[in-house]
Amino acid sequence: MKLYLYQIWYDKNTKPDEQSGLLAFDCRNNPEFLKREIAHLIRFYDEIVKDADNDNYFALLSPRFNKKTGLTIDQVKNFVLANPNQDVYLFNPFPMQVYSDMNVWDSGELQHEGLKELTQLLFDTANIKFDVYNKHRNTVYNTVYCNYWVASKSFLDNFVDFLKNLDKTIDNMPDYNRDKYFSDARYHTKASFYPFIFERLISSFLLLNSNYNVKPYIYNSGSVLFKKTKK
User: Fold this and answer.
1) Domain range for residue 8?
2) Which end of the chain is more exposed for a tag (fewer CB within 10 A), N or C?
3) d(CA 56, CA 54)
4) Please, which pLDDT band fits residue 96 given cuts at 50, 70 and 90?
5) What's the domain count of the chain?
């Protein structure tokens, strides 16, 4: 089991230093303002993961991982190594939402109104039998945001294929539907619906594929995340 943890490198300020424990995935020439991290993840899979050994594990994290989760990369590595033989390890930066919201799509609709309608259109067009309006319950075993997870190469083979299918589905839609995914979502900075939909897809993928071994990181009550919640 070998771990390869990468950080997205956007500019001179986001290249991980040698002491970080992270490798750099250079995205400076491919900023992907609309598709964001998902476009980087697909390219990362094609360039780094696709031809790797099957016993390798990978992550592609944003430069804000430490700030959002309160975790160091050593903590991530230690958690993965202490819990071998899992398919995917989840480091959910919003663990409280597992308890406050029924599922990731209800949460998404509250934050980005219109997200559920677009997601259901996407699933229906791609012939994926998943109803975002069904009151299914997401748990700690299938809830994660921001693409903060570590996964085996075999898991990524299937998950990225799932992402590529949905990405292609959007690209092949008539313009009047396709453009909706790249219209502005409600957010504190300019961003389209696309990344907010796609960052939640792993949760539905895990519900659709319950055969995977999943290990969620459980934050203790002293975590910076819960301290922020109490304020």
Assistant:
1) 2-218
2) C
3) 6
4) confident
5) 1
Long-range contacts, 207-214 (Cβ 8 Å, 24+)? 207/130, 207/136, 207/138, 207/142, 208/128, 208/130, 209/158, 212/87, 212/88, 212/155, 213/85, 213/86, 213/87, 213/88, 214/86, 214/87, 214/88, 214/89, 214/90, 214/141, 214/142
In a domain, 67, yes or no: yes
Place of tokens 């939640």: 200
Q: Which pLDDT belongs to residue 173?
A: 98
pLDDT at 24 over 80: yes
Residue 145 within a domain? yes
In the chain, the amino acid numbered 13 is: N
**Confidence category of residue 85, pLDDT binned at 50, 70, 90:** very high
Residue 88 backbone dihedrals phi, psi, to 5 degrees: -150, 145
**Does 154 reside within a domain?**
yes
Inside any domain, residue 228: no
